[in-house]
Design goal:
single chain, 467 residues, alpha/beta, TIM Barrel, 8-stranded parallel beta barrel, 16 helices, binds 5-hydroxymethyl-3,4-dihydroxypiperidine
Length: 467
């Protein structure tokens, strides 16, 4: 007979100390783009470039979280979230990227942190979720080392103001996207299509992470990590072309980040991957030590597995071409249900990824799932409520897979659902909805979806097993 407590719903089980929360990011929810001294970010510029973002959408208003944060914190409290992962907008704090600090920007995060603590929710900020100050991009962006150094200076300013109340910090969110989607594929700000520029961005993001870890430690930070988006990659066939594409994709998506951070080396297969790009002159002696210093946890953002098929883009720059191998999957794979992002729903791939990462990197710190969720074709009923059974099934399946990985010995400490709110989904504008709370973009009213209620019951059940 099962010893598990009887429950009306069959919720996935986690150890009592495992924490849960929800995540968002500054540009995707805050709005107030030109208020209280905020500077211009690369996303403000990119959104204003015709043809870049669906429907010409911008983050100017987004969810208006800048003004409505008390309501959003109340939603987190009522959800029963232990922790809230949000990001700090660098252009609010240091509008020019370097130099003068904007106190009003710091005041906003100060208020947010106090509101969270009063609601019993732990604040967990990420310092870079893609909204680089435009003046830094004008001076080279992540292609140049100055940006990495400026990042650590800005982080120190934030830590000095809210570090007394923040326990868990994240340096970067998905540097893979910042480097390759932003500088190689050009589908994110700043919209560049460069091979060497993207590789320089990879390096300077990593150096920026390392310098920021040092700055946070100097400010007395207790727990510091980074949020990566490793992927479960599988070759479409065992043809030599697809297998070679798989090696390139592994290098770009996973090894580029995990090898320097957790194995003290640049990626093993970079020569095969980048080919003719051989000038790594932007790497300096000692950089691997800066990048690879110990951190307290590694964040994992996970959504879907990717099947890799070699593409015919052979004449392109290597970084652009490798990104194309990854993009090719979106157009051909059949089988599992897909979310409105076109992403296949395969929860077992989540377990497989985590087990594999733990086996490949013995020095990996504990993991925290810093994002997981799904975009669905939400249709509100007459009361504005969304009965998002597909999202509930997605979350249940992925939490089940996570629980299995934990049971198999992978050291995972927490989980954040992406996202608390429907929000600005980058190049897709407001068309793709990931929230467990619906946002009506005309009225900005927030309405919890069925998935919010399900997660709320799941968290209540988890908490009941703590006592
Ligand atoms: O919305 C994004 C988020 O900003 C970064 N991770 C993936 C999410 C869904 O695409």
């Amino acid at each position: 007979m099962s010893t598990r407590s009887a429950s009306a719903e069959d919720f996935p089980q986690f150890p009592p100390g495992f924490f849960f929360g929800a995540a968002t990011a500054s540009y995707q929810i805050e709005g107030a783009w030109d208020e209280d001294g905020r500077g211009v970010s690369i996303w403000d510029t990119y959104c204003r470039t015709p043809g870049k973002v669906a429907d010409g959408a911008t983050g100017d208003v987004a969810c208006d979280h800048y003004h409505r944060y008390p309501e959003d914190v109340a939603l987190l409290r009522d959800l029963g979230a232990d922790s809230y992962r949000f990001s700090v907008a660098w252009p609010r704090i240091v509008p020019e990227g370097t130099g003068a600090v904007n106190t009003k920007g710091l005041d906003f995060y100060d208020r947010l942190v106090d509101e969270l603590l009063a609601a019993g929710v732990e604040p967990a900020p990420t310092l870079y979720h893609w909204d680089l100050p435009q003046p830094l991009e004008d001076r080279g962006g992540w292609r140049v080392r100055e940006t990495a150094e400026a990042f650590a200076d800005y982080a120190a300013v934030v830590a000095e103001r809210i570090g007394d109340r923040v326990g868990r910090w994240m340096t970067l969110n998905e540097p893979f996207c910042a480097a390759f989607v932003g500088y190689a594929v050009g589908r994110h700000a700043p919209g560049a299509r460069e091979g060497e520029g993207a590789l320089a961005a990879v390096h300077h993001l990593l150096v920026g992470h390392g310098l920021t870890v040092q700055a946070l430690r100097a400010a007395g930070a207790r727990e510091v990590g980074v949020a990566l988006n490793p992927d479960r990659l599988v070759a479409a066939t065992d043809s030599p072309e697809d297998l070679a594409a798989l090696v390139r994709a592994e290098t770009m998506h996973n090894d580029c980040w995990f090898d320097p951070l957790f194995a003290g080396r640049y990626p093993l297969h970079e020569q095969e991957t980048w080919g003719e790009i051989t000038d790594f002159g932007f790497r300096r002696e000692g950089d691997l030590e800066i990048i690879g210093q110990p951190i307290d946890f590694c964040g994992v953002n996970f959504y879907r597995p990717i099947t890799i098929r070699a593409t015919p883009y052979r004449d392109e720059d290597p970084a652009v071409r490798t990104a194309a191998d990854i993009r090719a999957e979106e157009t051909w794979q059949e089988g599992p249900r897909r979310t409105t992002m076109g992403w296949p729903v395969v929860p077992s791939s989540f377990r497989d990824l985590l087990v594999d990462l733990a086996a490949r990197y013995p020095a990996l710190p504990p993991l925290v799932i810093t994002e997981n969720g799904s975009a669905e074709a939400d249709v509100p009923d007459e009361d504005g409520v969304v009965h998002d059974a597909d999202r509930v099934e997605y979350l249940r399946g992925h939490l089940q897979a996570l629980s299995q990985a934990v049971a198999e010995g992978v050291d995972v400490r927490g989980y954040y659902v992406w996202s608390l709110l429907d929000n600005f989904e980058w190049a897709f504008g407001y068309d793709r909805r990931f929230g467990i709370v619906r946002v009506d973009y005309d009225t900005l009213a927030r309405t919890p979806k069925d998935s919010y209620r399900w997660y709320q019951r799941f968290l209540a059940e988890h908490r009941s097993r703590r006592s």
